[in-house]
Amino acid sequence: MSGKRVALALALLALLTAPFWVGGVYYVNIVSQILIYAVFAMGVNILLGYAGLVSLGHAGLFGIAAYATAIALSAGLPHSAAILVALIATVAGTAVFAVLALRATGIGFIMITLALGQIIWGLAYRWISLTRGDNGVNVVARPEILGLSLASAEAFYYATLAVFLLAVAVCAIFVASPFGASLKGVRDQPRRMNALGYHVWGIRFCACLFSGLLTGIAGILFVYYTQFISPQSLSLTSSAEVVLMVISGGSGTLLGPLAGAALVVVIKNVASAYIERWNMLLGAIFVAIVIFMPEGLVPGTTRLVRRLFKGRAARAAEDARP
Amino acid sequence: MTALAIAKLEKSFGGLRVTRGIDLAVAPGERRLIIGPNGAGKTTLFNLIAGELRADGGSVALFGQELTRLPSRRRAHLGLSRTYQIITLFPRDTLLRNVMLSLLGLSGLRWNPLRRLEGQRHLMAAAEQALGRVGLAHLALRPLSETSYGERRRVEIAMALAQNPKVLLLDEPFAGLSVDERRDVRKLLAGIPRDVTIVMIEHDMDVALDFAERITVMHFGEIVVEGTRAEIVADPRIKEIYFGE
Amino acid sequence: MSLWLLLAVNSVTLGGLLFLLSAGFSLIFGLMRIPNLTHGSLFMLGAYFGASFVIRYHLPFWLAAILAGLLVAAFGGLIERFLLRRLAGSEQAQVLVTLGISFMVADFCLMVWTGDPISVATPPGLVGAAHIGALIFPIYRLAIIAIAVVIAAALWLLLDRTRLGAMIRAGVDDPQMARVVGIRVSRLFTIVFCLGAGLAGFAGMMGAPILSVYPGLDADMLPLALVVVILGGAGSLPGSLVGSFIIGFLYNFGQALLPELAYFVLFLPMVLVLVLRPQGLFGRPVT
Lengths: 322, 245, 287
Description:
The complex is a heterotrimer. By secondary structure, chain A is mostly helical. Chain A is built from 16 helices and four strands. In chain A, the strands form two sheets. A two-stranded antiparallel sheet of chain A has the order 1-4. A two-stranded antiparallel ribbon of chain A has the order 2-3. In chain A, helix 4 packs antiparallel against helix 5 (79-101), helix 4 crosses helix 11 and helix 13 packs antiparallel against helix 14 (278-292). Chain B has a domain at 4-79 and 165-243: Rossmann fold. Chain B has helices at residues 42-50, 72-77, 95-104, 121-133, 149-162, 179-190, 205-211, 229-234, 236-243, and strands at residues 4-13, 16-26, 31-35, 57-62, 65-66, 80-82, 167-171, 197-201, 214-219, 222-228. In chain B, helix 3 crosses helix 4 and helix 4 (121-133) packs across helix 5. The interface between A and C is large, with 42 and 46 residues.
């Protein structure tokens, strides 16, 4: 267990000092992107990993938050008000999403969320009077926190890091809570949980709301990061990408989303500078993960490391969930 | 006041009438056995009582409380617990965790996203106690996947008992058990206090007849005959039902 | 008046293409419970292969289409045999692997055929329009409808009258039981996957004269196939047929009448159907 603590401490240290060692503003921005997508992926993971529900429409919720922020800002609202409006809009949107999508589970849920995501994307494209369609909406300036401007890459990075760490903490508390246990129980044996007195639909609905909240936070971070939002970010491809981040990183784990986000963002932005066929590389990596580490990068790597350093008995003892 | 009162219960699947006007009254503290050949509709009856299936007609009442319109989860809160023919527990979790989930189901705590579940001392103590009642306290931290089939059957019963039910429905609790395991479960069941009314479906005649006070015999979705153990054992119709005419 | 009729014909044509695309997906999902998210890429791959056969190797159109279908079927077989087979029951892994493969296929096509759209000429003999009474219909579009109907009939015969079809239906209804009865389920899976992939590839080439072939064709077609299968019900051939035509009509009429709300028109009915009847129009109710 202490090995894990050391690894986490090192990772935290690396993140806290990132602007000093990543090598330039471009890379600081990359790490910011990774953290933003990690929060997005954590939102999707609440449903995918802990509720057992795959959503292919979360980019729509992400988009609601981003557009709401941008539109509120361009209507003259101050940053704090715009952020509040965006969060409320996203959670309200998520509630509608959930009421419709939770009529089904499994492939039905996937399909309804896909359709709803596409509907929101379509609205972003066509409701030109509100969203300016293809032209997108600009965000003129980033907010100031306690007098410090977030205009620079480093400042924005630290703000993003703070939000990311907070999100991880909140998720950790959620997962270890009685509600988290209820959710996992509903994922594994919904019929049994129903017979034991749990409100299966209610539990899933609340999980959707929490998922939407995290996704909304990511959307707000995103629109302040790029200072621009267009329908592109709400496409089915975006929804699929974040699902892939969660699955490849390790669904149902706390840090899997971070690993998956890092994988995709790095290949898309960094590897693409060196390899023209980075899309193929990404696809190949996904296939490789499925073959060699089907449970995902984080659980798979943990398993490898343990096999290298520990004996069988110690591993079995750790495997039992208390 | 009857513990469990069923009146004119009806259920059809498409054109097939699987439950035909069942009337059943179980007294408080009674040990009732339901037997019948395969396909008689016994598990369907349990599913109707538990609320997992919606009845087409008739009523189910628990100590006078009408259950028929209530969803399955509400019935658990009103004092109805059941076990299943096929074990559907949580294999990756420890026995303690499995029983804790059962206890949590009736507690308002299950909606709480902020407290630490592991920190709920009273819950864990109650879960340990529930495991102790079925003789599995020493395996509390073992993952369910690493226990034997007989031990899992006992965990099922522990989980149902943990909810302090007024009426306990046991669906083939002896199925697939070895002789020793059967003896353990028999002892367990005999030790359940009389404030729990038990209704059991079973195929294993030796064990079940030993346990039962009144027996209800079902065939083709209806009750064919009902009576005390002695009456049923002597009744020629039973042989007919099981061995043909 | 004739504008509506033309729109209707185009809708039926699109419906026919969608049927060829989604019938395979529906069978694969119905039998193997695998959401084959490579299906759009298989359609696109078939279109690219077919286009190359016609343009570079000067093969006749129909031969090219059949060869393209066979090539894609073989590719599908490889995917099923070496990747998907080990992932039975693991939905997340299936999603990851099928999306991963679709990324690779899309990039492969971009690499080989570059980003310029490729037009494929309508096969000779089916060029031009037919005059039926006072109405004019493009012949090729009618041909697609005819082919879709023929293949639908052939598939129906396969499923209803042959042993293979009976095994497929048994597998869709109850895979455990099918195994117990001695059906070689794994071989059946490979055959069905090849069949589905081949149909998709063939459909890609069939659609090429109308849709042309371009990067992104896979992302355009996959959601439509998914919508058809969900609307019609997975594993149901009549469901795919009816669903395809409904979607064909909704898509074309939606684009024509309400371009502002095109996505609403397409996806809202699907959401409604799913909300009211999660198993789709013809699907088996989920327990």
